[in-house]
Amino acid sequence: MSKPKSAYSIPGKKQKNDTHIIVVWVDNEAGVLARVVGLFSGRGYNIESLAVAEVDPKLNISRITIVTTGTPQVIEQIKLQLGKLVPVHKVADFMRGDKKIIFKEMALLKIVGNNIKRKKAIKFCKKFNPVVLDKTNKSVVVQITALRREIDTIMNNLKKIGLVSVSRTGAVAMTRGAEVFK
Amino acid sequence: MSKLYSGAEIVFKCLEAQDVEYIFGYPGGAVLPIYDELKNHESIKHILARHEQGAGHAAEGYARSSGKPGVVLVTSGPGATNAVTALTDAYMDSIPLVCISGQVPTHLIGTDAFQECDTTGITRPCTKHNWLVKDVKDLSKIIHKAFEVATTGRPGPVLVDIPKDIQFQKTKYVNSIKRKKLNGKIHNKFNQGEIDQFVKLMVNSSKPILYTGGGVINSGPKASELLRELVSLTGFPITSTLQGLGSYPGDDNQFLGMLGMHGTYEANNAMHDCDLMINIGARFDDRITGKIDEFSPKSKKVHIDIDPSSINKNIKVDLPIVGDVSEVMLSVIKTLKKKHPNFASSNKEKTSKWWEKISKWRSVNSLNFINSDKTIKPQHAIQRLYELTKDKDTYITTEVGQHQMWAAQHYKFNKPNRWMTSGGLGTMGYGLPAAVGVQIAHPDKLVVDIAGEASVLMTIQEMSTAIQYNLPIKIFILNNEYMGMVRQWQELLHEKNYSESYTAALPDFVKLAEAYGCVGIRAKTPDELDEKIKEMINVNKPVIFDCLVDKEENCFPMIPSGKPHNQMLLGPNDQKENKITGKGKTLV
What we know:
The complex is a heterodimer of chains A (182) and B (588).
Chain A: E1 18-27, H1 32-42, E2 49-56, E3 61-70, H2 72-84, E4 88-95, E5 101-112, H3 115-124, E6 131-135, E7 139-146, H4 148-159, E8 163-168, E9 172-175
Antiparallel strand pairs in A: 1-3, 1-4, 2-3, 5-7, 5-8, 5-9, 6-7
Chain B: E1 5-6, H1 7-17, E2 22-25, H2 32-37, E3 45-48, H3 52-66, E4 70-74, H4 78-92, E5 97-103, H5 119-123, E6 129-132, H6 139-151, E7 157-163, H7 164-168, E8 170-171, H8 192-204, E9 208-212, H9 214-218, H10 221-234, E10 238-240, E11 255-258, H11 265-273, E12 276-280, H12 286-289, E13 300-305, E14 319-322, H13 325-339, H14 343-362, H15 378-389, E15 395-398, H16 402-410, E16 419-420, H17 431-441, E17 447-452, H18 453-456, H19 463-468, E18 474-479, H20 484-493, H21 509-516, E19 519-523, H22 526-538, E20 543-548, H23 575-581
Parallel strand pairs in B: 2-3, 2-4, 4-5, 5-7, 6-7, 9-10, 9-12, 10-11, 12-13, 13-14, 15-16, 15-17, 17-18, 18-20, 19-20
Antiparallel strand pairs in B: 1-8
Helix pairs in contact in B: 1-6, 3-4, 3-17, 8-13, 10-13, 11-14, 15-16, 15-22
């Protein structure tokens, strides 16, 4: 059935999706992450990546960074719905392209191969603050911090020269300069 | 050193501090310590439901008719899962409920213990907030906070899950009723600039309409008074959502009736053609808007709501005002009086054409139906019920379906909190237990559940509750042997394939009433209807009234699927309708 007759509501025109980074400050209590994530799944919002950890052990505040896509209306709803949750203190929202904001993801890359390949691999990562965390005469584990798409590119390049395992965090964000989001 | 209390005692100390008079509940293993404590607290009466869903809806009925939060007490596992429907219902219709559930002892959580379920996990999406109490020291703080969350801002249900061992453990009681707002979640965020802008829009409008919702009821009786003042100050026409009925007198000339899917012709057309839409405490629900792309295309829209997430959720508005509707209306009235004294009379000229148009729509008489002297038409039954009960300050609850819409169309409400219906979730089986709760809150008032025979069977067991507590609720069943609304949609939209919408083997409702120990009355013809209704009103006992109505009556007017407000399907008298539904007319 293309247009079911008893469907009371038929979806209207779709707007363009944008990628946003939503930062949420929450009380670090049991179930708080489930509340935030459940709100996204329950209302059909996307989560591209998610990073969460306690940032203020004294006040028990955790900071959740969520990368999401949606129309301007959906993004607005996400912020307002998050703001209604009892353990949520504040919600910030940044466009991915925003120049005032720093976004970073971290990745751990394990490369197995001979000396030449391993050296080449580290060279590939040079632009992204590579730190060698572990090395044997067969393998190397490198930590890099970069943007999502940069890590995607590196992974593609390294596949040919012995990348066997990847572990990535979600993006975290912070404003540039002296300003703090209130 | 201050006295130590058990968790169960603390529960009651908190309820007493919150002035709770009634708890609706059902006992079970994991709440036994709390039930054991009940006898020591005379100011709190427990109403034993026959199913936890019934307890929940009864608490909703109590809350909606009294303006106080409803309190529910259930056990773990099935007790909690049975309450989920009522919690979700309360969440959708913004009803303050505090549900206290028992849980298996802390050390058994996560072991798939007997009657264990992840109650806070299951109820997370259907409550404003919920808590699993892991330390008895937190208990009093949590319960007081639960009441605060349930009753402030946009009201809603909350749940406190208390493991059995916590109910036994002892600690000090801390009375921590706080009036502080949560996490800076203030509710009145509007400023005078917005009010001025709003008044300016009103002054400039020649085709205005007020569209009011359940928010006006939730804001308290004062909001309804302010609304009446605002309507008379402006002279604007007003329409209401299903949930808002009663906040403005249903028989007033400025009232256009309910709007939306089964709203009146004049209300929906006025919504479509207006140049200024003033939404007060409603949420642009899909049953109201119809097709969103063509919703009221030429209007400026003002939206007053306490919940910022309601703004721009479905419909983009030009002027959002976040705040309690009472506070906002108060400011608007003040400003209007100051800047434009005698606004209604000075503005009369400007809106006179608009009112002419409205009376033209009105003359269509869209709630009309072809009456019969042989079978009882359901609309006629509601009209008679209204005429015979309107002087009694009657409280009406409903189930969900055709009868609900007919009740909303033909029963005129004059006061807020007199109309309890499941609008958001559309829960069949809501009305009977809700009537129980309403009667508890108003023991001397007439409480009628306008029901369908299919809906009422979903929670019929609560008749037993009504008998136990001498609650003379009247269950007025419009019996057409069909799930009427399902049948109507199948007739109009599924080529009359009446798949599973006929109920064979219905019980004899008169005998059923007698079996429960209440009174059964049956009306078969229009002639005897009035007498039987009077008989029902005069019995001081619960009554099941089996009103046998036309089996194939449809609920009109109706906005058909995917259509905007100005393309309504009218009743059998209307020719257009015959064209659209074709075979549909043969049934009328």
